[in-house]
Amino acid sequence: MSRAPGILASWRRAPSLSVQKGSQTARHTCHPEVPLGNCFLPVYKANPLTVTHPWAEGLDQVIIHVGALSLKESQELAQHAAEIGADGIAVIAPFFFKPWTKDILINFLKEVAAAAPALPFYYYHIPALTGVKIRAEELLDGILDKIPTFQGLKFSDTDLLDFGQCVDQNRQQQFAFLFGVDEQLLSALVMGATGAVGSTYNYLGKKTNQMLEAFERKDFSLALNYQFCIQRFINFVVKLGFGVSQTKAIMTLVSGIPMGPPRLPLQKASREFTDSAEAKLKSLDFLSFTDLKDGNLEAGS
């Protein structure tokens, strides 16, 4: 299941999870620390400043994703991130010519990190999309010896055994463990997740914040109820067919900001999907009629 990159919530450091004033989606999102994209497209590579610099204004922290299929392009993007004052960089594994062993992947990541040696470095682990099946636990073993700037990873996989062992085996390292499966976040919290990155936080952020606050208060029963509520919506849209296109449609619905159509080969979400998603959001009390904006749904769907 492919989803758009979303908002990063780091509640251990900022438990209030407030967002910047004036954001049109502030009622629905989490703390704004935003990693940008999975792999930059050529238009962004030509002038990434036009993409990254506006995002940096008003945000507490910006981690720029510099992953690409070409090592040279990743290095150039990493250098650019350093030049514009990013707070960190993140890299996904190359997924056409794949690294099949830990050492090969580490060597690739090491070369990217070296291009911005002053920036904290994060690994984006999402094997369902990259096809790179190297376990994160294995990758982290001894990683600081190879990449001294390594600070943590975004873990976008349902393998909670692997995630738990990442945390357990690295308790002394103070790594950031950012979880990327929204519907399993509460389970990851119990295992020691320190933050989260997810597309649904763009419009389910209020309920997620409430879940995080309940967890911090050790009201685990209430936190579980919030997680189940989030799961009901995600389960509903997954059955309809849920991906980047559908996420854009929901974001247009919630914010009123036209997100535009997806690029081919993705197809725009159907009006039937948008109507069904809207009805489900209302039925679960994620949205009231006053929450909905007068956005151009056709542009986003």
From TrEMBL:
GO molecular function per UniProt: N-acetylneuraminate lyase activity
Catalytic activity: aceneuramate = aldehydo-N-acetyl-D-mannosamine + pyruvate
A UniProt-annotated Pfam family: DHDPS
EC number(s) per entry: 4.1.3.3
Domain of life: Eukaryota
Keyword entries, A-Z: Carbohydrate metabolism, Cytoplasm, Lyase, Schiff base
UniProt main location, coarse: cytoplasm
One cellular component term from this protein's GO annotations in UniProt: cytoplasm
Coiled coil: none
UniProt-listed InterPro entries: Aldolase_TIM, DapA-like
Protein name, per record: N-acetylneuraminate lyase
Organism: Nomascus leucogenys
Gene this protein is translated from: NPL
